[in-house]
Design goal:
By secondary structure, the protein is an alpha/beta fold. It has 13 helices and 14 strands. A 9-stranded mixed beta sheet has the order 13-12-11-10-6-9-8-7-14. The chain has a 5-stranded parallel beta sheet with strand order 2-1-3-4-5, sandwiched between helices. Helix 4 runs parallel beside helix 5, helix 5 packs antiparallel against helix 12 and helix 10 crosses helix 12.
């Protein structure tokens, strides 16, 4: 049997978060980082130091991402995109069309329209698209989702989620507080994990959403509260505080007719309390797996895609409604009637 050749991957963006992933990938012998795209010389220099430390050849850098895609179209198997949020849609689209499989950092895109267009490109190109949400990629969230979908816990009644971090201080002066690049503040950055994991656990769309985002004098939102009703009638609250004391944590609780499920926005834990039990107990699950390893497993057909763009679309619909509600002073946005409108129009035309 011949040994399988390493997966040739290119990185678009090698900033702080990308270098965290690089640390893991550089220890692997099944992956070759063949090229990078980084317009910031300091970020590229910091990444080059990592390669040197691991005794690995420093890959060439093409600072322009359009030229990067064109230049390496026939030299790479996959691309890992870790760039400011506003760039995700255009970059992921170009990479899929160039024939790359894509691992895309969160949040997937800026709007539901972009999410639908990206899914269409994925389908048309026949390439793989995995969104690097730790929550959806977490074995704990996958097990929680399985339990909730199985029916053994009964129907979902309420979901309560909270996330907090001293985000406003940590991100001051960075692109994360530049709306044209970030697309939002704390709720669309760290809080995007909360939006995605709740959407994943719910397993259905929101019917109604009301939201308030407070910027506390900064260019983007820092604190927020979202209230929603799922199509099934279950109620959801999302509380995000990006101006907390130095800390970073989260809590998600799903209340069903037969149990309480507790996890976090990154899927870092899973606890369950069934009817008759006195308290929450940890659920045994498999050990967490690095994002890149999960991508390789999906790409090789060893597992199904745990974080496909369809989950990203569900979150994007929620984010669209949150922004609209905020712009209208917290007005309730009726998504259920909008989803029915095309069907009603089609019926009227017959």
């Amino acid at each position: 049997m011949t040994e399988q050749a390493p997966t040739r991957v290119g990185f678009i963006g090698v900033g702080v978060m990308a270098r965290t992933h690089l640390e893991n990938i550089l220890r692997r012998d099944d992956t070759e980082i063949a090229a990078v795209c980084e317009p910031n010389p300091a970020a590229y220099a910091a990444a080059a130091q990592l390669f040197d430390q691991h005794g690995v050849r420093v890959p060439p850098n093409e600072p322009d991402w359009n030229r990067f895609v064109t230049t390496y179209a026939d030299r790479l198997d996959a691309v890992f995109i870790i760039t400011p949020h506003a760039l995700h849609f255009a970059q992921a689209t170009a990479c899929l069309e160039a024939g790359f499989d894509v691992l895309l950092e969160k949040p997937m895109v800026m709007t539901a329209d972009e999410a639908r267009a990206l899914i269409e490109t994925r389908d048309r190109s026949g390439r793989l698209l995995v969104v690097a949400f730790q929550g959806s990629l977490s074995p704990q969230v996958r097990e929680a989702s399985r339990l909730l979908r199985s029916g053994e816990l009964g129907s979902i009644l309420n979901i309560s989620a909270v996330a907090w971090q001293d985000w406003a201080t940590l991100t001051a002066g960075t692109w994360r507080q530049q709306p044209e690049l970030s697309g939002g503040g704390f709720l669309f950055d760290t809080g995007a994990h909360m939006l995605n994991t709740v959407s994943d656990l719910a397993g259905e769309d929101f019917a109604n959403v009301a939201a308030w985002l407070e910027d506390d004098g900064r260019p983007v939102d820092i604190r927020s509260v979202v209230m929603g009703r799922l199509v099934s009638g279950a109620l959801v609250t999302l509380n995000a505080c990006g101006s907390a004391i130095p800390s970073c944590h989260s809590d998600i609780r799903v209340f069903t007719t037969r149990a309480i499920v507790r996890t976090g926005i990154w899927g870092e834990t899973l606890e369950l309390q069934r009817t008759g039990a006195a308290r929450l107990r940890k659920v045994r699950s498999i050990a967490p797996m690095p994002v890149w390893e999960q991508f390789l497993n999906v790409r090789a057909g060893r597992t199904v895609n745990p974080s496909p763009p369809e989950v990203g679309l569900r979150m994007a619909r929620l984010w669209d409604a949150i922004r609209e509600s905020t712009a209208r002073g917290g007005a309730v946005i009726d998504l259920a009637s909008r989803s029915r409108a095309p069907h009603l129009a089609a019926a009227a035309g017959r």
